[in-house]
Amino acid sequence: MPAVKDYYKILGISEGATADEIKRAYRKLAREHHPDRNPGNAQAEERFKEVQEAHSVLTDAEKRKQYDRMRKHPFGGANGGFRGTPEEVFGNVGGFEDIFGTGAGQGGIGDLFSRVFRGAEATPPPGQRTRSGMRGRGDISTTLRLSFDQALQGGKTEVRLPDGKAVRLNIPRGVEPGFKIRLKGRGESAGRAGPRGDLYVTFEIDPHPVFRRTGTDVSMDVEINSFEALLGTTRSVENPYGTRVKVTIPEGTQPGDRLRLKGMGVQTDKGSGDLYVVISVKTPRGLTPEQKNVIREAANKAGLLPGGR
């Protein structure tokens, strides 16, 4: 009979390791041996699978109890052991928490999905039920970070999981932070007789250096000088999708005034938000004596300097 794999040794932890210790060890090793970080390295790929396997068993209380009994009584018999390898007893114990994918490129929806399972935890939404009863350990909840532009565009893609299966995901166009999708039956096995759990993906969106988003509305800052604020001016601005539009800034504009460009915000299947141009006013510095005299004279004539200066 094949020797029972030492999952504790694979993860580098003690037999009395806590759930947090198991999770920390798993994440460290999964990150180190992930195929995206070791392309073409068969040894690293095999090590990664072992780490996945060990994590899947040791994080499940019932599987861990059975596994501990198996290690003590590997040949079965009256002591309550099991016949067969852990794979034969537990089934396919490899999880699909590809949580440390780092092979994403710098742009494009397809690239970012290699990181889909970052931070995955087997924690089901409270009260989630299936036809067979209360949803249990098989559910996986994970967070997926999108760039600002990726969230605007949305799109479909496929990601291949460590167990070889491909999961097709659809990002809604203009998805908001906190939006969650459910992929039924894409979680972990809840047991040999139980149904497979679901995968829940919650989206987070990275900030943009220019645009600030609130729902489907977007705001941006535009700076003008005090003379432009006084007399009015125009500016050409670009919305998040690269469309340029001319903005008329009226005379007497105050710092913090917001100019609304209807329909120029985030576009979704249900409609479009607005773009708000927030005005900041900068006072010129370093004026020459001649410039100061010209401005002072004009202001005095216009009665804009009370008492004259």
What order do the helices and strands come in, and which of them pair?
Layout: H1 7-11, H2 19-33, H3 42-58, H4 61-72, H5 86-90, H6 109-112, E1 129-130, E2 133-134, E3 140-146, H7 148-153, E4 155-160, E5 166-171, E6 180-183, E7 199-205, E8 212-214, E9 217-225, H8 226-231, E10 233-238, E11 244-249, E12 258-261, E13 267-268, E14 271-272, E15 275-282, H9 289-301
Parallel strand pairs: 3-7, 9-15
Antiparallel strand pairs: 1-2, 4-5, 6-7, 8-9, 10-11, 12-15, 13-14
Helix pairs in contact: 2-3
Overview of this protein structure:
The protein has 309 residues and is an alpha+beta fold. The chain has three domains: 1-94, Helix Hairpins, CATH 1.10.287.110; 108-206, HSP40/DNAj peptide-binding domain; 212-301, Urease metallochaperone UreE, N-terminal domain (HSP40/DNAj peptide-binding domain, Sandwich). The protein contains nine helices and 15 strands. It has helices spanning 7-11, 19-33, 42-58, 61-72, 86-90, 109-112, 148-153, 226-231, 289-301, and strands at residues 129-130, 133-134, 140-146, 155-160, 166-171, 180-183, 199-205, 212-214, 217-225, 233-238, 244-249, 258-261, 267-268, 271-272, 275-282.
List descriptors.
alpha+beta; Helix Hairpins; HSP40/DNAj peptide-binding domain; 4-stranded mixed β-sheet; elongated
Mean pLDDT: 76
Question: β content, as a range?
Answer: 15-25%
How many domains? The number is 3
Shape: elongated
SSE ordering: HHHHHHEEEHEEEEEEHEEEEEEH
- Strand tally is 15
The rounded distance between the terminal residues' Cα atoms is 101 Å
C-alpha Rg (nearest Å): 30 Å
Largest sheet, described in full?
Answer: 4 strands, mixed
Name of the CATH architecture of the largest domain: Sandwich
Structural class call reads: alpha+beta
CATH fold node name of the largest domain:
HSP40/DNAj peptide-binding domain
* Helicity, as a percent range: 25-40%
* Count of discrete alpha- or pi-helical segments spanning 4 or more residues: 9
- The largest sheet has its strands arranged as 8-9-15-12
CATH superfamily of the largest domain, please? Answer: Urease metallochaperone UreE, N-terminal domain
Uncertain runs with pLDDT below 50, 5 residues or more? 76-89, 91-136
CATH class of the largest domain: Mainly Beta
